[in-house]
C-alpha cells in the first residue's frame, strides 16, 4: 500500500486517554507522575518512528490515532507514489514536511507497448511545482514512466541544491540539453541513472558539463542514451570520480574505449560494456589492448551488461570475472549456444541471467548445469514475431526448472510450450515469486497435446505458494482464471492477453484474488457484468486496465457512478472519436483521493 | 490445427455467455480500431464487416502477416537494436522543434496530428504563441511567428506549402521563426 489510501478520521481525544491509562497503569510509587501525552508522543517519535523505514509499517503507524498520524507525517522522509494521479501533489506536501526521497510512477505499463496514445499525461511538472516549494532538502528522485522536459530538469537542478540521486526509468520528453544542466548544476550528484529512457539528441556534449574537480559520482548509467559521447571528456570524468562503482555505457563506446575506461576504474562493481565492438577497422600491425587483463583487474565486478553490438569473439575477455559475477545481462547479444557455453560454465555464482533466445534450448541447458544459484532468468526473443520457428521451447523451460531449483523470477518468450513443462516448473521451483510466460503466437495451445494452457498456469498458482506476479499467454479458457481465483491468494500483479471465453474469466479473478493490485488485460472477451464483479475491490487496487475488451461506455459510467473515489478513464486510441463503437477502446481505472486530473488530453474521457 | 481444437472445446464447454457471442470473441480485438490488426488476420473466426470504414486508416503493410499493436509485448528499443528499424505505427515520427529565442528544444510526433491545423494548434499551445492564418501567397499573417521546417535537402521551407503527407515524409526538423526572418520565408515561396 502506498500514500494513496484513505486517511483516517479518528478522535484525538480518545487517543489521549488511551495513552495516559496505558502509562499510569503500573506503579505504587507516589512520586511517579505519568508522562503527559505530548511526552509519550515525543518518546514515540524518538524511539520508534525514527527507525521505521518501511512505508507499509509507517502507513500502519499513521492509522493508530491522530497524534500518531501527525508524528508519522513529520518523520517520514521517503515517499512512494505508486500512481501519480492517485493523489494531488498539494495534499502530499501538506501532509509530509520532511521528505528527502521521492519515487513517482506514472503511466500504466502497457504504455511500453504503444497501447497508450502519446500525450496521455504523467507530467512530472505538476509534482515538481509542489515539491520545489516544499522540499528544498530533497536528495533523491526516482521517476518511472513519467514525462519529464528539459525545463523540468532545469527547475530540479535549481530547486534542490542537495540533490544526490536522480533515477529515470522508462521516462521520456527530455534530451541531452537537460542532462547538461543536471551535470553542470547538481554539485552533489552521486547517482545519475537513465534506464530504458528515451533521450533526445540535442547535440549537446553533456559529459563535458560535469564540474572539473573531483566528483562524488558513484553511479553513472546511460546505456539507453542513443547519442554520441565525447569520449575524452568521459575518460577524464571517470578518472576524477574515485567513488564510481556503477558505470553503464551506451553503444557509441567501442571496446577499445571501454578498455581505457576500465583500467581507470578497476573498483567498478557494475559495468555496462557499451557496444563491445570495434568502431574502427584495426590495422593488422596494431596491437589489440589486453582486454583480459582489464577484466582481471576488476576484482569487485559482480554485475555485467551491455554487449549492445557484440563481436562474439571478444566474449572470452570476460572470463576473469565469470567466477564472481552474480548478474549477467546478455539480452542484446545475439550469440549461439556454442558461444555462450564457455562463458556460462564458469558462472557458478550467477543469480540473475538475461539472454536472447538465440542461445536456444541448448544454451539454457548449459545455464541449468552451471548456475545452481540462479534466482532470476529472462529470455527475450531475437525475432518478436508470431509466425516464426523460435529457438527456445518447453525443453529449455524444463531443463531450467530441473537445474535451477532456487528460481524466483522468470520471464520467458517462446513460440511453443507444453503444459507438462510448466507443471514441472511449478513443482521443481516452489520459490517462484514471478512467473511470466509469453507464448508469442496468440491463442497457441500446448503444441504436443493441443490442449489449452490452463493446466500449466493452474499448476503454477497452485504449487508456487509465494507467487505475487503472473503473466499468462497461449490458448486459455475461463478455467485458468478459475484456478487463479482459487489459488492466487497472494497475487498482486496479473497480465492477461488474448485469453478467456466469457465474463466468468474476469469474475473469477476479481472475486478470488484479495491481494490483486495491478490488473492489465487486453483483447479478452470480458464485458460489463464482469466489470461490476469487482466493485467491492477496486478501491483496494492501484489500477485496472482493460483494452479491446467488451466493456461499454455505459458499463464504465456505472462503475464511476457507484464508486466516486475511483477515476475511470475511457481512452480512445483512434484518431477520430468514433461514437458508433459499441465497446470502449481502453478503460483505465484507479483510485484517487482528489478530483480527477485536470491535464487529461482530448482523447481521454474521465467519467 | 490449433483452431480445430479450439472450436471443439468451445462447443462442449458450459458457459454463461449468450449464445452466439463466441464467434465475436476475437473480432472485438481487431474490429474497432484503426491501429489494430487489419482484416486479413490469422484468426478464422473473424468475418468482420465493421472494419470497412476503419480499414482505410489501417496500416497498409499487413498483407501477409497480421500486425497487432504491442504484441508480442517487447519494448521497442529491444526490437530496434536487433532488427533493421521498421517504420510502422508503433514508432512515432518524432521531429525536434526549436523556436527562435527559446533555450530548449521540444519534440513532437507528427503522426499524432491529423493535418496542419492540428499541428499548428499544438505548437501554439506548446510555445504559448499565436501563429496566424496561412495563405499561399502571403505566408502567415497576423503574427510575428512563422512555422518553418527543414526538409530532406536541408532547405528551410514554410510549413503549409506542400500537402500534409508530403510534409510528413520530408520534414526533418521544425523551426518557429520570429520577426523579419518569418516574413522572409513567406516571400521566398
Compressed to H and E, one letter per element, the order of chain B equals HHHHEEHEEEEHEH
Based on CA atoms alone, the radius of gyration of chain B comes out at 23 Å
Q: Roughly what percent helix of chain B? A: 25-40%
Strand portion of chain A: 15-25%
Largest sheet of chain B: 5 strands, mixed
What is the C-alpha radius of gyration of chain A, as a whole number of Å? Answer: 27 Å
> Unreliable stretches of chain A, pLDDT < 50, 5 or more residues?
1-28
Largest interface: A-B, 67 and 56 residues
Q: What share of residues of chain A is helical? A: 25-40%
Mean pLDDT of chain A: 90
The biggest beta sheet of chain A reads: 21 strands, mixed
Output the structural class of chain A. Answer: alpha/beta
Please, what is the oligomeric state? heterodimer
Q: Report, as a whole number of angstroms, the end-to-end distance of chain B.
A: 61 Å
The DSSP helix count of chain B reads 7
Number of helices of chain A: 21
Low-confidence stretches of chain B: 1-7, 20-65, 83-90
Total strands of chain A: the figure is: 23
Q: Averaged pLDDT of chain B, please? A: 65
Amino acid at each position: 500500500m502506498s500514500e494513496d489510501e484513505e486517511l483516517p478520521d479518528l478522535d484525538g481525544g480518545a487517543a489521549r486517554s488511551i495513552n495516559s491509562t496505558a502509562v499510569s497503569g503500573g506503579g505504587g510509587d507516589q512520586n511517579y507522575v505519568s508522562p503527559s501525552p505530548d511526552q509519550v508522543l515525543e518518546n514515540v517519535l524518538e524511539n520508534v518512528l525514527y527507525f521505521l523505514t518501511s512505508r507499509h509499517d509507517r502507513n500502519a503507524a499513521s492509522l493508530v490515532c491522530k497524534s500518531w498520524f501527525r508524528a508519522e507525517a513529520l518523520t517520514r522522509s521517503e515517499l512512494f507514489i505508486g500512481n501519480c494521479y492517485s493523489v494531488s501533489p498539494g495534499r502530499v506536501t501538506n501532509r509530509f514536511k520532511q521528505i528527502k526521497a521521492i519515487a513517482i510512477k506514472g503511466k500504466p505499463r502497457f504504455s511500453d507497448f504503444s497501447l497508450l496514445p502519446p500525450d496521455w499525461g504523467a507530467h512530472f511538472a505538476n509534482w515538481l511545482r509542489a515539491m520545489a516549494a516544499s522540499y528544498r532538502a530533497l536528495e533523491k528522485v526516482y521517476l518511472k514512466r513519467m514525462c519529464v522536459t528539459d525545463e523540468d530538469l532545469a527547475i530540479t537542478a535549481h530547486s534542490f541544491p542537495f540533490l544526490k540521486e536522480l533515477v529515470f526509468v522508462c521516462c521520456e520528453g527530455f534530451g541531452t540539453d537537460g542532462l547538461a544542466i543536471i551535470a553542470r548544476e547538481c554539485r552533489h550528484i552521486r547517482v545519475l541513472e537513465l534506464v530504458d529512457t528515451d533521450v533526445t539528441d540535442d547535440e549537446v556534449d553533456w559529459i563535458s558539463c560535469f564540474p572539473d574537480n573531483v566528483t562524488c559520482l558513484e553511479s553513472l548509467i546511460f546505456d539507453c542514451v542513443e547519442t554520441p559521447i565525447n569520449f575524452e571528456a568521459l575518460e577524464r570524468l571517470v578518472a576524477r570520480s574515485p567513488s564510481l562503482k556503477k558505470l553503464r555505457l551506451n553503444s557509441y563506446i567501442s571496446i577499445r574505449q571501454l578498455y581505457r575506461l576500465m583500467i581507470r576504474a578497476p573498483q567498478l562493481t557494475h559495468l555496462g560494456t557499451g557496444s563491445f565492438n570495434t568502431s574502427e577497422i584495426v590495422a593488422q600491425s596494431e596491437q589489440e589492448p589486453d582486454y583480459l587483463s582489464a577484466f582481471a583487474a576488476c576484482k569487485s565486478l559482480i554485475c555485467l551488461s551491455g554487449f549492445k553490438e557484440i563481436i562474439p569473439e571478444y566474449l572470452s575477455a570476460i572470463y576473469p570475472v565469470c567466477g564472481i559475477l552474480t548478474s549477467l545481462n546478455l539480452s542484446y547479444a545475439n550469440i549461439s549456444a556454442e558461444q555462450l557455453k564457455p562463458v556460462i560454465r564458469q558462472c557458478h555464482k550467477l543469480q540473475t541471467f538475461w539472454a536472447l533466445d538465440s542461445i536456444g534450448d541448448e544454451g539454457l541447458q548449459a545455464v541449468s548445469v552451471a548456475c545452481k544459484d540462479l534466482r532470476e532468468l529472462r529470455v527475450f526473443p531475437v525475432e518478436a514475431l508470431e509466425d516464426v520457428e523460435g529457438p527456445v521451447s518447453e525443453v529449455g523451460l524444463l531443463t531450467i526448472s530441473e537445474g535451477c531449483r532456487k528460481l524466483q523470477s522468470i520471464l520467458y518468450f517462446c513460440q511453443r510450450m507444453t503444459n507438462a513443462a510448466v507443471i514441472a516448473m511449478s513443482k521443481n521451483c516452489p520459490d517462484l515469486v514471478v512467473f511470466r510466460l509469453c507464448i508469442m503466437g496468440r491463442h497457441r495451445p500446448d503444441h504436443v497435446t493441443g490442449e489449452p494452457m490452463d493446466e500449466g498456469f493452474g499448476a503454477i498458482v497452485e504449487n508456487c505458494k509465494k507467487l505475487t506476479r503472473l503473466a499468462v499467454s497461449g490458448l486459455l479458457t475461463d478455467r485458468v482464471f478459475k484456478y487463479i481465483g482459487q489459488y492466487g491468494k497472494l497475487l498482486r500483479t496479473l497480465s492477461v492477453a488474448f485469453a478467456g471465453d466469457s465474463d466468468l474469466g474476469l469474475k473469477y479473478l476479481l472475486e478470488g484474488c484479495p491481494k490483486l493490485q495491478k490488473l492489465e488485460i487486453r483483447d479478452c472477451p470480458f464485458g460489463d457484468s464482469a466489470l461490476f464483479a469487482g466493485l467491492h475491490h477496486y478501491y483496494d487496487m492501484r489500477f485496472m486496465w482493460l483494452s479491446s475488451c467488451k466493456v461499454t461506455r455505459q458499463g464504465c459510467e456505472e462503475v464511476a457512478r457507484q464508486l466516486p473515489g475511483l477515476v475511470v478513464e475511457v481512452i480512445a486510441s483512434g484518431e477520430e472519436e468514433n461514437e458508433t463503437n459499441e465497446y470502449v477502446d481502453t478503460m483505465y481505472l484507479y483510485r484517487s483521493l482528489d478530483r480527477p486530473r485536470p491535464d487529461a488530453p482530448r482523447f481521454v474521457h474521465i467519467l | 490445427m490449433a483452431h480445430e481444437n479450439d472450436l471443439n472445446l468451445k462447443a462442449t464447454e458450459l458457459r454463461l455467455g449468450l449464445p452466439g457471442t463466441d464467434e465475436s470473441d476475437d473480432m472485438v480485438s481487431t474490429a474497432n480500431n484503426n491501429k489494430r490488426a487489419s482484416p486479413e488476420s490469422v484468426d478464422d473466426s473473424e468475418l468482420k464487416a465493421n472494419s470497412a470504414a476503419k480499414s482505410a486508416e489501417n496500416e497498409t503493410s499487413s498483407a501477409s502477416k497480421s500486425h497487432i499493436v504491442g504484441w508480442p509485448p517487447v519494448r521497442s528499443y529491444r526490437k530496434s537494436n536487433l532488427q533493421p528499424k521498421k517504420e510502422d505505427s508503433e514508432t512515432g515520427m518524432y521531429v525536434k522543434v526549436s523556436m527562435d529565442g527559446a533555450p530548449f528544444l521540444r519534440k513532437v510526433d507528427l503522426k499524432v496530428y491529423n493535418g496542419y491545423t492540428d499541428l499548428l494548434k499544438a505548437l501554439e499551445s506548446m510555445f504559448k504563441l499565436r501563429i496566424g492564418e496561412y495563405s499561399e501567397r502571403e505566408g502567415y499573417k497576423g503574427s510575428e511567428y512563422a512555422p518553418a521546417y527543414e526538409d530532406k535537402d536541408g532547405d528551410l521551407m514554410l510549413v503549409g506549402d506542400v500537402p500534409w503527407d508530403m510534409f510528413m515524409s520530408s520534414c526533418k526538423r521544425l523551426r518557429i521563426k520570429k520577426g523579419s526572418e518569418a516574413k522572409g520565408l513567406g516571400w521566398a515561396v
